[in-house]
Amino acid sequence: MDKETLNIVDRRTDAAYDLPLYKGTLRAMDLRRIKTGPEDFGVMTYDPAFLNTASCQSAITFIDGDKGILRYRGYPVEQLAENCTFLEVAYLLLHGELPTAVELRQWIAGITRHTMLHETTKKFLEGFRYDAHPMGMFISTVAALSTVYPEARHVLDPEVRRLQILRLIGKVPTIAAYTYRHNLGFPYVYPDNDLSYAENFMNMLWRMVEPKYQVNPVLARALDILFILHADHEQNCSTNVMRAVGSAQADPFVATAAAAAALSGPLHGGANEEVLRMLDEIETKDRVPAFIDNVKSGNGKLMGFGHRVYKNYDPRARIIKWAAGKVFEVTGKNPKLEIALELERIALEDEYFVKRKLYPNVDFYSGIMYQAMGFRPEMFTVLFAIPRTVGWLAQWQEMLEDPEQKIARPRQIYTGHEARDFVPLERRGATVTA
Ligand code: CMC
Q1: Using CA positions, which residue lies closest to atom 27 of ligand 1?
Q2: DSSP 5
Q3: What is residue 305's DSSP assignment?
Q4: Angle CA(345)–CA(349)–CA(354) in degrees, nearest 5?
Q5: Whose CA is closest to 391, among 225, 169, 170, 224?
Q6: Which 8-state DSSP code applies to residue 312?
Q7: Does any ligand 1 atom lie closer than 6 A to the CB of residue 304?
Q8: How far is the CA of 301 from the centre of ligand 1 (A)?
Q9: Average pLDDT of 78-96?
Q10: Residue 99 per-residue DSSP state
Q11: Residue 360: closest CA among 297, 299, 316, 323
Q12: What is the structure's pLDDT at 431?
């Protein structure tokens, strides 16, 4: 007998089934063979929030949550953060291999050609209220690109896809920087294509009247490292949205906007904004123990802690802590660092957090670093969305090329009423009181 099978006995019928295991998983469709009779639909799985369901096969990102391992295309993220630029990693995620020198040059040139926004898109952005949340502006403007590039809907054409990928990677920093300037009431700064990806982003954020923006190389490198660390994270909430919307063959601009909408939630990419709010609320280091006791009594969560997949220290958090140290050498220390370090120290020793395997995640230190660089918390998720656009696109492309994928359409367990007859409006109150 093949050992890679599960033997299931259905006690309702006493029938036995040998169900093959595929790479350690059960194909849910095989369960449909298990029926009580010809009229029976067959057994389904019930898995709210996909806690134990693989929705796809993917060769992009590997995570071992128990060991705290994260690899892109097989390369440990630590090695990539140390040795690569963000655009090199973007190439790796999208193409499967690191680029040669020539490929990298062409790749960078291809993206740099697409950093400008159409003037009407710029005007579209100008229409937002002065205090609009940058993530709302980012999501809407990325979606609006779909109106500028209608050919993007031909998602099954690899050449069309490639062009939209270049456009999106090129334009998301421009959109992000414009949302930042919009809130400040500053004029938008056009891209400077002599600069690297992170440098140009800084130029569009912070250039005032000087003819050429002088980049601080430490801050530019720290930003590039943060981009690398945020580039992909396999089937997280927003990536799942990208794949689900993309599976209906919607164009990549609206699909990316939908993924970014998911990212904006406080339990996902919005968490680093919440970390800063939490640190503000704690105010001083001596109030940390009382705050932790409050969390343990069920009042809120320790933001920036815990992860659906990591049950160990998030490897990205360790590198961000290091990069934050480098940034503080330039900007001066963020006073919130002391509170964060104390929170981490106490939480890592506290039985509540130890038992639940709650460790700092990617968002715990990134906000403190971003704040030291001059960003308001509202911008943090936008900074996450820029590099994650690459991951979303890599996953979207893989999904479209996967012959096993179809439009995403989960099943449900219906818990509503049995069939009942319509009640006319004039008799409805009577029905309730009868
Ligand atoms: N603080 C206090 N308790 C927590 C926390 C936390 N941050 N996270 C989880 N728990 C508790 C939770 O109450 C539960 O306790 P019990 O077993 O007594 O009911 C237990 O730990 C398991 O939690 P869970 O909610 O089942 O875990 P999950 O896998 O569904 O949630 C999470 C993962 C990230 C949504 C959650 O840990 C959380 O809300 N963390 C705070 C928000 C945050 O930092 N999010 C960023 C995630 S990383 C970046 C990203 O994905 O975008």
Answers
A1: 308
A2: E
A3: B
A4: 120
A5: 169
A6: S
A7: yes
A8: 7
A9: 98
A10: P
A11: 316
A12: 52
State if residue 236 touches ligand 1 by the CB under 6 angstroms criterion. Answer: yes
Per residue in 179-232, pLDDT (tens digit) is: 999 999 999 999 999 999 999 999 999 999 999 999 999 999 999 999 999 999
Question: What distances in angstroms separate CA 259 from CA 179, 228, 277, one per listed residue?
Answer: 18, 18, 24
pLDDT digit string, tens, across residues 382-391: 999 999 999 9
Give Cβ neighbours of residue 434 (< 8 Å, ≥ 6 apart). Answer: none
The Cα-based distances of 300 to 292, 297, 303, 331 in angstroms read 10, 9, 9, 32
User: Is residue 295 within 6 Å of ligand 1 at its C-beta?
Assistant: yes
Cβ neighbours of residue 39 closer than 8 Å, sequence gap 6 or more: none
What pairs with residue 61 in β-bridges? 72
Please measure the distance between the N-terminal and C-terminal CA atoms of the chain and give it in whole angstroms. 63
Which atom of ligand 1 is closest in space to residue 308's alpha carbon? 29
β-sheet bridge partners, residue 21: 26
363 pocket-lining for ligand 1 (C-beta < 6 Å)? yes
Question: How far is ligand 1, taken at its centre, from the CA of residue 274, in Å?
Answer: 13
CA–CA separation, 382 vs 178, rounded Å? 11
Contacts of residue 179, defined as CB under 8 A and 6 or more positions apart, other chains included, come to: 125, 132, 134, 137, 138, 141, 379, 382
C-alpha–C-alpha distance, residues 162 and 165, integer Å? 5
Instruction: Calculate how far, in angstroms, residue 298's C-alpha sits from the geometric centre of ligand 1.
Output: 12
Where in the sequence numbering do the catalytic residues fall? 268, 307, 363
pLDDT digits (tens, 9 = 90+) for 7-20: 999 999 999 999 99
169 and 396 Cβ atoms separated by less than 8 Å? no
Q: Is the C-beta atom of 359 inside 6 A of ligand 1?
A: no
Rounded to the nearest angstrom, the distance between the alpha carbon of 310 and the centre of ligand 1 is 11
